[in-house]
Design a protein that fits this description.
Layout lengths: L9 H8 L1 H18 L7 E3 L7 H9 L8 E5 L5 H4 L2 H17 L6 E8 L7 H18 L3 E6 L2 H11 L5 E3 L6 H9 L3 E4 L9 H9 L5 E3 L21 H12 L3 H16 L1
Helix pairs in contact: 1-2, 5-6, 8-9, 10-11
Length: about 270
């Protein structure tokens, strides 16, 4: 099945699996889109991680001829050491990249991914917060959703989102917490997306959260080329692997894969346009 993937780094998929694999994947999604007549067909959201990566990503995707109406693009600054060396400069570069895309007639679907990562612990927490808050403000100015990365930083992520009072939708991607944290994010109006780690042995709290999130705020993703669902954990993933995550989520939520596919696709179209 070809299924909506709300977060896949397609340029990294190409690096890991090759251009031929990426071309075949995009062809499958194009065919599925045609079969659906474009109405809530399966989407892929390709996020950004560095202010300067949008141009190269666009160049890569342009190498595949034909219309790609199923693709949605985002631009963001992940909390890496490079981006945190000067949050102000990173935010200025990101704004310039977004403006340049707009002048070319390229419509972004979201800002991100940006957020907090206390697992890798790059930079100071103050610098991580500044880079995150700046992207929240940018998303709000542009009227776009913000895709949020949050790892071992639930409390601070919640506090920053709550304090921003932004009117823009917020998506917590590759959700990595439990049902209590999911409830807190939902209370703020956030959307929550689950990835292939839902299938991992030690992810019981994550599975409880997956069963808990209400349908209208629920999404699924690969985070490709990472988070390959079982039994292929540790190998590079692509959106072609997402059906196993759908199957696991469907069982947890007492639904069929087809029912969940309809829900996730509808939500992705609503969030990303």
């Amino acid at each position: 099945m070809v299924l909506t993937d709300s977060h896949a780094h397609l340029s990294l998929v190409a690096e890991e699996l090759g251009l031929d694999a990426l071309g075949a994947l995009l062809g499958d999604y194009a065919e599925a889109w045609r079969a659906e007549g474009g109405k809530e067909g399966p989407l892929i959201l390709d996020p950004g991680v560095d202010p300067g990566d949008l141009g190269p990503r666009l160049e890569l995707l342009a190498a595949f001829a034909g219309s790609r109406p199923f693709l949605r693009l985002a631009a963001g600054a992940w909390p890496s050491a490079q981006n945190l060396a000067s949050p102000e400069a990173s935010l200025a570069a990101l704004s310039a990249s977004v403006a340049a895309a707009s002048r070319r007639g390229i419509r972004l679907a979201a800002i991100g991914e940006g957020g907090l990562d206390y697992y890798h612990g790059e930079g100071t927490r103050a610098d991580q917060a500044a880079l995150f808050e700046g992207q929240l403000a940018l998303a709000s100015r542009l009227g776009l959703p913000l895709i949020v990365h949050s790892r071992e930083a639930a409390a601070d992520t919640l506090a920053i989102v709550a304090g921003a009072h932004s009117s823009s939708p917020v998506l917590i991607h590759c959700f990595g917490y439990g049902a209590e944290e999911a409830s807190a994010f939902l209370d703020l109006g956030c959307w929550i997306s689950f990835a292939g780690n839902l299938t991992y042995k030690k992810s019981e709290a994550l599975r409880q959260a997956c069963a808990h999130v209400r349908a209208e705020r629920f999404l699924l993703e690969t985070d490709a080329p990472y988070m390959n669902p079982m039994p292929r954990r540790g190998r590079p993933s692509s959106p072609a692997d997402i059906e196993r995550t759908y199957a696991a989520a469907a069982e947890l939520r007492g639904a069929s894969v087809a029912e969940l596919a309809e829900t996730v696709s509808r939500n992705a179209h609503e969030l990303f346009g």
